[in-house]
């Protein structure tokens, strides 16, 4: 597989993941290698059950590979302690999911400030950055609104701002527009694209939307656990 040159924010080296299934093992990810550089927006496509979510979880240090190496910002995650992996995940990786998972009892601003406070940032500083991020996603005037008072697209924009709260180098998104109508999906995707370029993130977005996938810099296709690259 051809890969862009440059320092990798994320590197997978011969990564596999299998699970026990009776007397055998189910191979979900099979020998995947890839590099992802700062400023790249990469689509991850494939049929349901092909291994997209598992691969994203491995990239995000939420699930360990059965074999192979996951290297983030030059650090081999397999050689880190549990605490060190947790710290790397909190400070280096942002996640956006199909369902926004905002805390319903807190405002948009608080939803963005809380992850920073968990990471040790003082409340005043966390709220100041939350306002900056809400401005970045065009929602500063909705800062005091709770999720139920926001539209689906607005909720997902808050979720994107939250993912950027701790200034990650890597953004992983699992069907971030899958729960939105076509127009709102386009708006959220355009926002993600602008943010990746403006902030210099490395981003991988799993999607079933081939129209959106074709607008990204690279398309990675996972089929039966095996990765290939090329425009669909």
Provide the descriptors you would attach to this structure in a database record.
single chain, 232 residues, alpha/beta, six-stranded mixed beta sheet, four-stranded antiparallel beta sheet, 7 helices, 10 strands, 34% helix, 28% strand
- Helix % is 25-40%
Instruction: Please describe the biggest sheet, giving its number of strands, its sense, and whether it closes into a barrel.
Output: 6 strands, mixed
Number of helical stretches of at least 4 residues: 7
How much of the residues is beta strand, in percent? Answer: 25-35%
Rg, rounded, reads: 18 Å
The low-confidence runs, each spanning 5 or more residues with pLDDT under 50, are none
Q: Kindly state the mean pLDDT as a whole number? A: 87
Strand order within the widest beta sheet: 6-7-8-3-9-10
Question: How widely separated are the two ends?
Answer: 15 Å
Write the layout of secondary structure elements.
Elements lengths: L7 E14 L2 E14 L3 E5 L6 H8 L7 E6 L2 E2 L5 H11 E5 L10 H11 L4 H14 L15 H12 L6 E5 L7 H18 L2 E5 L3 H4 L4 E6 L2 E4 L3
Parallel strand pairs: 3-8, 3-9, 6-7, 7-8
Antiparallel strand pairs: 1-2, 1-4, 4-5, 9-10
Characterization of the model:
There is one protein chain. The protein is an alpha/beta fold. It has 7 helices and 10 strands. The chain has helices at residues 52-59, 82-92, 108-118, 123-136, 152-163, 182-199, 210-213, and strands spanning 8-21, 24-37, 41-45, 67-72, 75-76, 93-97, 170-174, 202-206, 218-223, 226-229. Helix 3 packs across helix 4 (123-136), helix 4 (123-136) packs across helix 5 and helix 5 (152-163) runs parallel beside helix 6. It is globular, with a radius of gyration of 18 Å.
């Amino acid at each position: 597989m051809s890969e862009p040159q440059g320092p990798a924010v994320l590197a997978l080296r011969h990564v596999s993941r299998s699970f026990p299934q009776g007397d055998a093992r189910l191979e979900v990810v099979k020998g995947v290698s890839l590099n992802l550089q700062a400023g790249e927006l990469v689509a991850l496509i494939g049929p349901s059950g092909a291994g997209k979510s598992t691969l994203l979880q491995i990239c995000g240090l939420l699930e360990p590979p059965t074999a192979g190496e996951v290297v983030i910002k030059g650090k081999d995650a397999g050689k880190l302690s549990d605490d060190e992996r947790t710290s790397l995940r909190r400070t280096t990786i942002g996640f956006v999911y199909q369902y926004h998972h905002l805390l319903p009892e807190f405002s948009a601003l608080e939803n963005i400030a809380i992850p920073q406070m968990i990471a040790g940032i003082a409340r005043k500083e966390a709220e100041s950055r939350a306002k900056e991020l809400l401005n970045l996603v065009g929602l500063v005037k909705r800062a005091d609104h709770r999720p139920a008072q926001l539209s689906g697209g607005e909720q997902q924009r808050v979720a994107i701002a939250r993912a950027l709260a701790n200034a990650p180098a890597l953004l992983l998104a699992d069907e971030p527009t899958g729960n939105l109508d076509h127009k709102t999906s386009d708006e959220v995707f355009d926002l993600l694209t602008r943010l990746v370029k403006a902030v210099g993130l490395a981003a991988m977005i799993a999607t079933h939307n081939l129209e959106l996938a074709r607008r990204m810099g690279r398309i990675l296709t996972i089929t039966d656990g095996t990765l290939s690259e090329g425009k669909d």
